Amino acid sequence: MHVNFQTPVGAAQGSILQGSTARTSGGVRGPPLRRNLMKVPANCRRKVHGWPGSGVLLWHGELVDQVLTPKAHRPGHTAGEPPGAPARRRLPARSVVFGTMDHPRWGAANTALARWLPPVYEDGFSQPRGWNSGFLYHGSPLPPVSTRNAASTRWESVDDQYSDFLTVWGQYIDHDMALTPQSTSPAASWGGANCLQTCEIRGPCFPIQLPANASQDTGTACLPFYRSSAACGTGDQGVLFGNLSAANPRQQMNALTSFLDASTVYGSSPAAEKQLRNWTSTAGLLRVNLRHHDAGRAYMPFTPPRTPAACVPAPGAPRAARAPCFLAGDGRASEVPALAAVHTLWLREHNRLAAELKALNAHWSADTVYQEARKVVGALHQIITLRDYVPRILGPEAFRQHIGPYEGYDPTVNPTVSNVFSTAAFRFGHATVHPLVRRLDIGFQEHADLPRLPLRDAFFRPWRLIQEGGLDPVVRGLLARPAKLQAQHQLVNEDLTERLFVLAQPDALDLASLNLQRGRDHGLPGYNRWREFCGLPRLETAADLSRAIANRSVVDKLMDLYKHPDNIDVWLGGLAEDILPRARTGPLFACIIGRQMRALRDGDRFWWENSAVFTEAQRWELGKHSLPRVLCDNTGLTSVPVDAFRTGTFPQDFVPCSSIPGLDLEAWRETFPQGDARPFIAMGPAAARSCNHPGEESWPA
Q: Where does the UniProt annotation place the signal sequence (predicted)?
């Protein structure tokens, strides 16, 4: 779920540049190049919004520091490790060491989202579609995005196959891949425009204009909207570099690493990771909450006191405008109880793995244990997503067409998350969000003490998890209650279009309108352009549109609003398409999601199936693991469905946790051969392939 948050938090990360004479891998001296790059005007290095709990403000200058720091001095790099080093494959800090050595910015945090098609701006380089009221498309102006009758529903169809866990996993993994910071609007930078108080279209404000009847109901003529921060030097910032033209259109940043690397657990920067680790532990643990526990199991810690409190306080709490949020690798962890529960599961899983690895390898340092546990957790995120989640979204035929079997790492594949994936296609999940939080008792029935909770009463309320039963009731509800079905006549539930709670915003917002406005803000081409990109036929008339969208009333509504299929916003057009067989998306979004997931897999040299990353024995063990096993190991549940994403009826569809296989960490035991002081991991012939070749970067700790 993408929610606007208008209050920056945390503190800026300092430079990590070390060494004044070392050359970068490109042969250019680091400090002189850095000085030249840092000559750009200050407002091109301005702060952009973080998220509650992130603990770090994002700076354009951070990326300069990271890219230009010599390899031997980068955090996480083990300098001087010889070719005969121990056969332990180590995982890099992704914000520093990227997926390909030839293209170090691919997939890196704080770089631009990838463009698969050129952007569409009304002035050619920055102004979104709909910015100028007199601009016509096929002879008609674009409709305002606040057309709730096109996307909102008070009712929800029930998915008869899949559980709410499928929905929350999509939301969780989305937060592992992308976060687009929003522009700020200080008077000094923007001539006094305050996006919370104006309905004027003036950068960085692109307010969502409300129809007259809605304005009368709400007492306001618009909903506030901040444009996404432009990547430095693009769009109207190009004037700073003498390049204000359509050849340098506005691009948007991704504050996170693109990779499926469990940045939700560990963060996307060294500064974030530093806040999350337990530095007093010898077992490589993550920090936990010292004030509260869940029947002896850990909760996430709260954000530190120096971070402005940003969540809703519990009833009866000491008078305060805001309460601390949970601290996690991604600052959106407190959005809803289900998302907070999944974050908490992986915190517990890391600490469980770390404790077992330390018991197996007592000689390992805390950092070695931490990195090995982190590497396993990252692999499990990849496995659950590509093996279990994505095939259910795309369907078997689209999965074969757009993803297919793994054939190894391809250094020519750019894994960077694309703008259309992040801003439109992967937001299909907003149509599967259920309006109620269902919490169940030990018998998987409605909980007598925890009634169904409207989603609007759960936003940014971490106390709901701590004070109302802990993780287990929420997890039971995710497993045993169906997701909302994405139906053409019932797209986004009313709590997301009428009562979306956004911090620092007094009025409820509208998620469907935010999605449409964000797509225009990012310059996404219209629906037909993306169909052509995916090899699908163009749709010119209502009759054509009916071949992609069987529901005639939806077709009529879209044509009445947009007048021509070319004008349809890609998020709404893709969402309304007929669902593919055994899938949860239509052909357009299946194409975009499939292409992105394949790029994330094939363009990641640290993908878990790459033979240079884990040994053969370790890969075998990882392949046995599953989300149900993670639930068994980290909650009080004693029985689970074999497939966490399929709705299970208790008890017939549940099995004892003792029957759910998991990985055997013996494959990670490090032994010392007789007469050799150097340790090695005795796991078969694959271990020999882990040593670094001349000129290859070591696996940083």
A: none
Provide φ and ψ at 431, rounded to 5°: -85, 0
- The model's pLDDT over 512-561, given as tens digits with 9 standing for 90+, comes to 889 999 999 999 999 999 999 999 999 999 999 999 999 998 899 999 99
Lookup: tokens for 562: 């947009």
* Residue 105 CB coordination number (10 Å): 15
Structure-block tokens of residue 247: 């050849």
Question: Among residues 471, 423, 434, 421, which one has the least CA distance to residue 167?
Answer: 434
Closest by CA position to 609, among listed 408, 385, 410: 408
Total residues belonging to the chain? 701
Alpha carbon 13 to chain centroid distance? Answer: 21
Taking alpha carbons only, the member of 71, 599, 8 closest to residue 310 is 8
Structure-token pair, residue 96: 């520093």
Q: Evaluate whether 664 touches 658 at the Cβ level (below 8 Å).
A: no
pLDDT digits (tens, 9 = 90+) for 400-454: 999 999 999 999 999 999 999 999 999 998 888 888 899 999 999 999 999 999 9
Find residue 453's DSSP bridge partners.
Answer: 437
The CA R_g of the chain, rounded to the nearest whole Å, is: 25
> Taking a C-beta distance cutoff of 8 angstroms, is the pair 118, 249 a contact?
yes
3-state helix, strand, coil in the chain (%, to 5): 35, 10, 55
- Read off the tokens for 661: 């296989």
Question: Could you give the CA distance from residue 272 to residue 263 in angstroms, rounded to a whole number?
Answer: 10
Q: Which amino acid is at 373?
A: A
Helix (H, G, I), strand (E, B) or coil at 226: strand
Q: Are 419 and 252 in contact (CB under 8 A)?
A: yes
Determine contact, residues 639/655, Cβ cutoff 8 Å.
yes
Distance CA 324, CA 303 (A): 6
User: Are 106 and 100 a contacting pair, CB within 8 Å?
Assistant: yes
pLDDT digits (tens, 9 = 90+) for 262-278: 999 999 999 999 999 99
Cβ neighbour number for residue 1 with a 10 Å cutoff: 20
CA-to-CA distance for 145 and 1, rounded, in angstroms?
18
Catalytic residues: 175
Residue corresponding to tokens 């959005």: 335
Q: Nearest 5 degrees, angle CA 351-CA 354-CA 359? A: 130
Distance CA 502, CA 485 (A): 25
Q: What contacts 278, CB < 8 A, 6 or more positions away?
A: 285, 286, 287, 288
C-alpha 695/C-alpha 374 separation (Å) is: 26
Distance CA 77, CA 205 (A): 42
**Looking at the predicted structure, is the pLDDT value of residue 319 above 80?**
no
203 contacts 236 by C-beta, under 8 angstroms: yes
Q: At what angle do helices 337-360 and 627-634 cross, to 10 degrees?
A: 80
Measured CA to CA, the distance from residue 415 to residue 600 in angstroms comes to 5
DSSP string, 564-577: SGGGS-HHHHHHHS
Q: Please state the rounded mean pLDDT for residues 114-138.
A: 94
| Percentage above 90 pLDDT, the chain | 62
Alpha-carbon 105 to chain mean position: 18
pLDDT of residue 298: 98
Using 50, 70 and 90 to split pLDDT, how confident is the model at 16? Answer: very low
